[in-house]
Design brief:
Layout lengths: L1 H30 L47 H9 L3 E4 L15 H4 L3 E7 L2 E12 L2 H13 L3 E3 L6 E5 L8 E6 L3 E7 L3 H19 L5
Antiparallel strand pairs: 1-2, 2-3, 3-7, 4-5, 5-6, 6-7
Protein name: Lipoprotein
Keywords: Signal
C-alpha cells in the first residue's frame, strides 16, 4: 500500500514537473520576437536637371538728353524741316543767321529777354506766311516767372505725356495767330503761326516739338 501510494505520488509529481517545464518552454518560445522582413525600397528616379537658362541682359539705360542752347536760327530745326520751309518759298528773315538778323524786330521778344533767340520765316510782304520760332534757356526763377506770365496772359494749359508743360492759343484762320509754348525743366520753346485756327495750331505743336528735339540732341 505504501509503495503504491508513493508510486502514485511520484507519478503526479513527475507529471506536474513535466507540465511545468512544458509551460515554461512554451512561454520561452512565445517570448522570442519574430523579426519582420526588411522592407524593399521602391526604386526612385532622380529628377532631370532643368536646362540652364542664361539671364536676360539688363536693358541699357537711355542716354540722358541735355539741353544745348542754339547759337543762331540756322540750327534750331531739323534739316528736313528747313528744306520743307524753303520748298514753300519761306525765307529766314529775322533772328541771328537770317537775312536781317535781330534788326528785324522792333522790340525784343519775351524769349530774347531771358537769353533766348527768336527766328522768323516767311515771304516778304505776305503777313499770313509768317512763323516765329523761339528757343530760350530757363532756370528755376525764369521758369516760374514765364509760367506765371503765360497764365496771366490767358494762355490755355494743355496736357502732356511727360513732365513738360504746354500753354497755347488756337487763334482763328485769318484772325489771331496760333501760339504754342512748351516749357521743360530748363528750356522754353515756342511758335507763333500767323495762320491761326486748328491747322495752324497743330503745325505749331509739331514744329515746337522739333525745336525741342534738336535742342536736346534727339533730332538732327
Amino acid at each position: 500500500m505504501v509503495t503504491a501510494f508513493c508510486h502514485r505520488r511520484a507519478s503526479r509529481l513527475v507529471a506536474a514537473l513535466t507540465g511545468g517545464l512544458l509551460a515554461v518552454g512554451l512561454g520561452a518560445c512565445a517570448a522570442e520576437p519574430i523579426e519582420a522582413p526588411e522592407p524593399i525600397a521602391a526604386p526612385t528616379t532622380a529628377p532631370e536637371p532643368e536646362p540652364a537658362t542664361e539671364p536676360e541682359p539688363e536693358p541699357e539705360p537711355e542716354p540722358e538728353l541735355v539741353f544745348a542752347m542754339p547759337t543762331d536760327c540756322t540750327e534750331i530745326l531739323p534739316t528736313a524741316r528747313v528744306a520743307s520751309l524753303e520748298a514753300q518759298n519761306l525765307q529766314l528773315l529775322g533772328g541771328p543767321g537770317s537775312i536781317y538778323g535781330d534788326d528785324f524786330f522792333f522790340d525784343e521778344t519775351p524769349e530774347q529777354l531771358v537769353g533766348g533767340i527768336s527766328c522768323v520765316w516767311g515771304q516778304e510782304g505776305v503777313d499770313l506766311s509768317t512763323i516765329l520760332l523761339s528757343v530760350a534757356p530757363l532756370n528755376a526763377a525764369t521758369r516760374a516767372q514765364t509760367i506765371d506770365d503765360l497764365i496771366a496772359q490767358g494762355y490755355i494749359a494743355y496736357d502732356r505725356d511727360d513732365s513738360s508743360l504746354a500753354y497755347g492759343l488756337i487763334g482763328d484762320a485769318g484772325g489771331p495767330p496760333a501760339i504754342y509754348n512748351l516749357i521743360t525743366n530748363d528750356a522754353w520753346f515756342s511758335m507763333l503761326n500767323s495762320l491761326g485756327g486748328r491747322a495752324g495750331f497743330d503745325e505749331s505743336i509739331l514744329l515746337t516739338e522739333e525745336l525741342r528735339g534738336v535742342a536736346y540732341g534727339a533730332l538732327e
